[in-house]
Amino acid sequence: KIKGALFDLDGVIVDTAKYHYLAWKWLADQWGFEFTESDNERLKGVSRTRSLEIVLEIGGIVLDEEEKQRKAEEKNERYLQYIRQMDESELLPGAKQYLLQLRERGVRIALGSASKNASFILGKVGIAELFDAVIDGTKVSKAKPDPEVFLAGCRELGLDPEDCVVFEDAEAGIAAAIAAGIYVVGIGRQDILGEADLVIGGLEELVAAG
Ligand code: B16
Ligand code: MG
Hints:
six-stranded parallel sheet, sugar-phosphatase activity
């Protein structure tokens, strides 16, 4: 029986990838190269610093460390302009209902996200109080596929990995859950997330299953 559930944020609870995309594209436009939605797939689940490196690689641009830091900050400022506008309507289908169902069953809930803006976003969409623990990019040093974020989540919930389940939309996150020894449900496409123990289209499918 499952005692704890660990949720990724972007792609599982909200679709912030579209705002990350617009913010990175804004930087790419300034540099004068095209940054496509398919390029953006490579940034999912990846840290801000690593995302910038991928964007620079796509544009063939070389920056020193100081400039990289400045550009990462500029990107985040732009991204914040979008997420400041978020509200409950941006929750993905079934996300809130499923969290509520789990709570009714006494399952403890943690967030396991690479984002440094995770707590802010949970507040904006009005579900912060549904989480017993929030592990995000401000708390971990090793990014997914390292298992750190999910192991820290289990620890904060006071549960063993084998009593938990992870919900993830990104390959790196699924690899992280597997490395942590946690049962993992992939949210998205079977052909991309085949490593997961189970793949579903969205949390609404679990709400319907009851
Ligand atoms: P930030 P997740 C990840 O969120 C995003 O998928 C990824 O595209 C982003 O670069 C990363 O958060 C860091 O976000 O710039 O807000 O710190 O899927 O791990 O919830
Ligand atoms: Mg994600």
